[in-house]
Amino acid sequence: MEEDPPHKPRVCQSIHFPRNDEFVQRALVSEQIAQLLPPKTECQSAAIWGLGGSGKTQIALDYAYSRCSDPTCSVFWVHADTKTSFAQDYKDIAVKLGLPDNLDGDRLLTAVRNHIQTLPQWVLILDNADDLTLFGVGRSQDATKQGAPDLSVYVPRGPVGTVLWTSRDKQIVGSLVGPRRGINAVRMTSIEAETLFRAVAVVDISEGDAAHDDMTQLLTELDCLPLAITQVAAYIRRTRISIGEYLEKIRQRKKRWKALKNSAHDPHRRPEASNSVMETWNISMEYIQQQNKMAYDILSVLAYVDNQNIPFAMIKRIAQAPMYEDRKVNGTEMSHQRDDVTSAGNSPSSDTDSGDDEDEDVVEAVIRLEEFSFLTPRVEGKALATHAFRVYDMHKLVQEAISFNLHVRDFSTETQLTRIAFEVIDDLFPRKWHRDTWDKCEQYLGHTQRTAEWAQAHRREKDVASLLKRASNYLHYMGTLIRWVAKHSLLSHYINKGGSKSRQYSEHRYCEYSKWC
């Protein structure tokens, strides 16, 4: 008598969202996914990480449906932001897998993990794993002793299967997946951003039209962020406002805040999650505030300077500033350090180890901001050789969102932060300009202009006017120098040649010019 064939586990597909027909493939990201997670049965894992609103969930969703095209592959989607959401999704999966309905707690999670591991081919998406401590990363000994859950033990393992994580925290790479298994959800290219906008707004715009120029400028204002593009395009489609009208609206700070705070229902995102561009980074801010207070304070002050060309020296000076304190001692405002004054922490008589520890704290804070994609280092020459020479950029919408939330939450805090930002730039902008300070003057010009915009907030209008006068004098001085040098025919020759000779010639003429000033 023949024995019955062994029970074959049935294929199960449990995905929370419908397929996104407006999804736009991003060439660089798609290439990495194809390389790291090909459709095969061997064990493999990867993590998509990046700024909130950069499209990580939509990238994972597209991958999930691409694997569903294989009728032998089971696909599961789990929200990994909290223990509760993780357990609830595992419970839903248990029902679909036909597991006993009397399971709960640890027994339920273990049973689901074990069953998935028996499937011949499966994919598990762990979405929004932003709090990595839930999965044992960076857990304190106290948390372990108190029995805080380590959900990583319930993630299926074995010789087969694919696990794809999404997280705002780059620290997931090298901890929950291998150091070379990370996929950065990099910003969209201008072509990709335009394709997404057209798809969601349902507009027909031809190159050369005024509307096309408006769209290009609008996407620049939105810094090609997928969440912002989707929300703005949906608003334009629903209200039938012209792109030009919307562009004018967001060029004024208060109106921009109001416009970007709007959110629309998105069937491809969790209904309880905010779709507002002004609120999407609150989660990341809360994690940073809990994990590294210095990083949070630095980020708060950076909301009031220029979002580009942020040198490490400026970040370090911000870290040294007193935060959220009364800035007067015995009725006199505290003085702040000048470039030509040696701070106590860096004086020859100070404790060297203490200074080193301070630098290490600042570096650790900056690294944390990099891991959450709030700061992006520029890759220029020696910029990556040491932190002291590194220069960073910040997403302009992140900066807007931080200043908006600080304004709404506590106006007095906004006053303190704008004052600190001004004082730092006032300290760093040179008081004399000569060849040795040209680069520094150029580096802080944008920050000078930006901090001046907040003069009313911290009520230091006279001091701001003094700083702007220094910047104006420098620009006038350089303009006069350039006009004088330009009269000499050899200048155009060296400029066309490029390289250091042009600068050397300019400096030579500068020396001659200085004799006559």
Number of helices: 21
- What about the largest sheet? 6 strands, parallel
Number of DSSP strand runs: 11
- Rg is 27 Å
Structural class given helices, strands, pairing? alpha/beta
Bulk shape: globular
Contiguous uncertain segments of 5+ residues: 1-6, 326-354, 512-517
Any idea how many domains?
A: 4
Distance between the ends = 110 Å
Q: Helical residue percent?
A: 40-55%
Strand content: 5-15%
Strand order, largest beta sheet: 1-3-4-5-2-6
Mean pLDDT, rounded to whole units?
A: 83
Pfam families: AAA_22
Biased composition (Basic and acidic residues): 331-341
Region (Disordered): 331-359
Protein name: ORC1/DEAH AAA+ ATPase domain-containing protein
How would you sum up this structure in a few lines?
The protein has 517 residues and is an alpha/beta fold. It is built from 21 helices and 11 strands.
What does this structure look like?
This protein is an alpha/beta fold and 517 residues long. It folds into four domains: 13-184, P-loop containing nucleotide triphosphate hydrolases (Rossmann fold, 3-Layer(aba) Sandwich), CATH 3.40.50; 190-261; 282-339 and 352-471, no CATH class; 487-516, no CATH class. It has helices at residues 27-36, 56-68, 83-97, 105-118, 141-145, 190-201, 210-221, 226-239, 243-249, 253-261, 282-291, 293-302, 312-320, 352-371, 396-409, 411-428, 438-452, 455-458, 461-486, 489-497, 500-516; strands spanning 13-14, 44-49, 74-79, 122-127, 162-167, 182-184, 310-311, 328-329, 332-333, 376-377, 391-393. Strands 1-3-4-5-2-6 form a six-stranded parallel beta sheet. A three-stranded antiparallel beta sheet has the order 7-11-10. It is globular. It holds the Pfam family AAA_22. InterPro entries: AAA_22, P-loop_NTPase. This is ORC1/DEAH AAA+ ATPase domain-containing protein.
